[in-house]
Each structure stands twice: as C-alpha cells, then as structure tokens.
Amino acid sequence: MFASKLLTCSALxxxxxxxxxxxxxxxxSWPNVDxxxxxxxxxxxxxxxxxSSTTPTSSTTEKSITxxxxxxxxxxxxxxxxxxxxxxxxxxxxxxxAPQPYPPPSVGTWNTSCIMLQMAAQLNFSYEAxxxxxxxxxxxxxxxxxxxxSECKSQTTQFIHLIWGPETSKQSLLMYFDKSxxxxxxxxxxxxxxxxxxxxxxxxENQTVQLLHKSDGEFKTPEKMSYHCTRDQKMNMTETLDAxxxxxxxxxxxxxxxxxxxxxxxxFSVGHDCDSSETSDVVPIAxxxxxxxxxxxxxxxxxxxxxxxxxRGYMSF
Length: 317
What we know:
Layout: H1 2-45, E1 108-111, E2 116-128, E3 134-140, E4 146-151, E5 157-164, E6 171-180, E7 183-194, E8 208-214, E9 221-222, E10 226-229, E11 233-241, E12 244-258, E13 271-273, H2 282-316
Main location: other
Function: Plays a role in short-term synaptic plasticity in a subset of GABAergic neurons in the brain.
Membrane topology: Single-pass type I membrane protein
C-alpha cells in the first residue's frame, strides 16, 4: 500500500519536472521571437537605414534580407528642367529728336509821312549750297527792321525802304505802290539778302540773293482807304544772278497798308478787306429799274380796275 503511493508520487514529480523543462524551453525562445518582430517593424518603417547586424538562422531556411546603403542613392539633377522664365535684358531705345519747324514770322509796323505798313512776311527761296547743289531756305523779315528811305513827293508812284542786319552787310526790302484812277495797287517788291553764316550754315560763302516780285494788282484798294487782309498771300519771286534763274516766293499775312496818305494823317483809314465782295453798279441799277416798273404796272392796274367799278355803278341807276 505504501509502495503504490510512493510510485504515484514519483510519477507526479517526474511529470512536473518534465513540464517545467518544456515550459522553460518555450520561454527561452520568446525573446528571439520578440527581437525578430521588432527588427521587421524597424525594416518596414525605415527601409533606407543601413543594417550592420545579421539575423540568426534557425533550422528553417529564411530568405536573406538585402541591405540598402543610403550612400548609394545619389540624386541626379542634370535632367531637371527649370520652369523659371529666362532673364532678358531690355533693349536700349535711342530716341532721335525731330527737327523743330521753322518759326512763323512776327508782325512789324512801319510808318512814313505817306505810307503806313503793317505785315508779317516770310521768304522761301533757292540758293547754292557749299557742295554746289541748289537747296531751299526759309527766312523771316524781321519785325524790328527800320525805315531807311521813302518816296512821298510823287502822286503816281511811292515806295518804302526797310533795312536790317549788321552794318557790313545790310539786308533790304522795297515796296512800290502806284495810283491810277483813284485806286492804289502794289506794283513791285524787291529784296536784297546776303546769306550770313549764322542764318544759312550750308550756304556758299559770300552769296547774295536778289528777289523780285512784279505785282499783278495785289493790294488793290480805293483812294482814301487802307488795304486789309489777315490770311496768307503767296506771291512768286524770281531772281537773275550769274545767269541762273532762281525761283521762290514771299508769303505775307496780317497785312494792312495805306499809301498816298496825307502828312497829318494818324492811323489807318477805313479798311478795305481783301475778301470783301465788290458788286458792280449795274446790278443795283437794274434791280431799281425792275422795282420801279413793277410798281408802275401795279398802279396802272389799280387805276383801271377802279375806273371800271365806277362806270358800272353809274349804269345801275
């Protein structure tokens, strides 16, 4: 009886020892499993990190893990195209100042005992340049020109003489007026012009231009009246110098002139405008005759009608 109990206790003890041995064997393998899981987790979280340790092998063959070194990954930038626009330098634009137009002439006023003149005048003429070519030039008659001389004794032809410029080379303008049949007209304009270097830089040296205009009834005005015209008037001028015929013109504007004035006259007389219409005396005479004839016809018709009505009244009795 005692022997059977002893055997039973021994068997239980052996079973306990075996079970402890198995439990201890299994508990020893758990750290390895924990380590494998943590390493795998780290590999998934950071695949580019370098691994220097190797995984221990077991009885079962495991796949080898290839280590990737971050030093082997070299980014290349040669194929990257920049999207920024290229820097361009704005071109330098050179501005050329356009030549200024020739200034318009100023109005001058000149007075003598028999002629009073007010006008602005500009010359446009041809002259010889230094290279021998013929070119055109503009020149304004100065408004500060002075009266050099005048002719007031004659009752048929009078003139006014204007001069300006340096003493060594005086420039001049003469205007002649004729009177005929109680009408005054401009007969001619004469201009003597020395081409000074300060006025004509490209002109041939020591060149003098003489311009002449023969009038064809300009500035025509009745006696005891002044000629008035504000618009531009162009008059052709010719020159014969060294057997060369040069053509130009003079443009006058804001003109008022009166010749054959009395010595004691002050100011201009009543102005005769250049654009005023001149009606012939035949027209008003013809209109007057037509109106008189019409009135006469109406009067005769009225008298005849009245006479008839009176005669009919007597017959009724």
